[in-house]
């Protein structure tokens, strides 16, 4: 059997972009995986193959190509079902990404179900995509948006949830399974248990978690779940919304148009079966096929191996970065409670300046508010630098990052 | 070959550590705030205006070294100028002062955020002190098309 280490050494060969150099002939050190990941040849080739050999619109024509395209598209739905353990494939809706998935819920579930005085609960460490759609909805309905607070360790204060649930007005609790800034892994089981006891629905933003660890929806027991393809080796512009069927059946359509209908008459329309009722128009077929190839790739490696690899890298990075004088890491240092996302600030140097200087060393890290301004306010910072890892990253990447910080220290006379 | 990191020369680093005209003016005649939605940098400019002249100007906020240095230089250039002179300050005036003429596109917004705030503040002041509403609309449009 292949050792985990050699397994991940071989992984790099599948990613052509990792062979290129940037700036002054420096090898690319890509550490912005929480934002988007690079694509292996297997994914790139599957999209090319789709356009070269199978391209046709789906669910309509009877000719050979249309049948092949439909089969390839629907095959990804089955792969997704297996990957996150969903029994009923009708509950899986293809969307553009996590943002669209959450907006779909806010619109198609939220508008018919949320009334004046109702409460929707989110958390202080959400991405803007799990805040703004709920602001729009609650403002429109005269409902309220409340936040589960975060402690100094970057973990949620679940007593806040108890307080809101006790009002009897909460209709939905929505939270990310892993923070895109701090890497904190949310205690989803506990939140869901509390919500179930109170008869409250739960939505999980899985964008940061699904790419990096085994996620089992059957076991989790939430009601809505969203994630994106491009953060897990897949193409951009494709994501998943899963909704429990009993709830999906109570939702209004999101977009009206082709493919989502059963019969259209001049003044009324009946809807197509699930999940097609929520997939209006010609979908992003090629990228759904590419997403399928990404799922195959990750399944072959094994999600437990992915997690193990990242735990190893995160442990190493926290150890090395902690030793840099003046560097502050946000969030918990307990590796079992965090993913491979490390946000930091370096003395009084603004993260943009850090990112620009280390970019000259070939390092790609994100600097800014990471679409989490509520969290930035909580941390009392305008921005952070963020390094985030994936299957092709190595300890050497982290060494290069740590060494590049010496250049920053020199420029800013730290 | 000059690298992008060369922009971090002595002057930029010094200004970012010890910004000039940093702070607030309590009895300002006009104040304006704006931020960069991409990075969260945020700048406020307060001005005291007497006889159509900018007699005092201060800025405060959060930003990177480039943003802080450019805000310092801009406020230095603006102080003492008439409103009309201040209105005609261009991006080149700020960038050339700091040797940032070739700043890459992604950082140009850091450098020019304070200029945008200054112009908006001036237009706000002019708008509030003008009676002809047509002129106000024209000024607003001009401000919106700055970048």
The CATH topology annotation of chain B reads as: Sufe protein. Chain: A
From the 3D structure, determine the CATH topology of the largest domain in chain A. Answer: Aspartate Aminotransferase, domain 2
- Enumerate the spans of chain A where pLDDT stays under 50 for 5 or more consecutive residues: none
Query: What would you call the structural class of chain A?
Result: alpha/beta
Largest interface: A-B, 23 and 22 residues
Order of strands, widest sheet of chain A: 4-10-9-8-7-5-6
Strand content of chain B: 15-25%
Helix content of chain B: 40-55%
- Average of the residue pLDDT scores of chain B: 88
How many helices of chain A? The count is 14
What is the radius of gyration of chain A computed over CA atoms, rounded to a whole number of angstroms? 22 Å
- How do the helices and strands follow one another from N- to C-terminus of chain B? HEEEHHHHH
Q: What number of domains of chain B? A: 1
Count of beta strands of chain B: 3
Overall description:
The complex is a heterodimer of chains A (about 425) and B (about 150). Chain A has helices spanning about 5-10, 40-55, 65-85, 100-115, 130-140, 160-165, 190-195, 215-220, 245-250, 285-300, 305-320, 350-360, 375-380, 395-410; strands spanning about 20, 25, 30, 90-95, 120-125, 145-150, 170-175, 200-205, 225-230, 240-245, 260-265, 270, 325-330, 340-345, 365, 365-370, 385-390. Chain A has about 425 residues and is of the alpha/beta class. Helix content of chain B is about 50%, strand content about 15%. Chain B has 6 helices and 3 strands. The longest helix of chain B is centred in the C-terminal third of the chain and has 24 residues, at about 105-130. The two termini of chain B are about 30 Å apart. The chains are: A alpha/beta (about 425), B alpha+beta (about 150). The interface between A and B is medium-sized, with 23 and 22 residues.
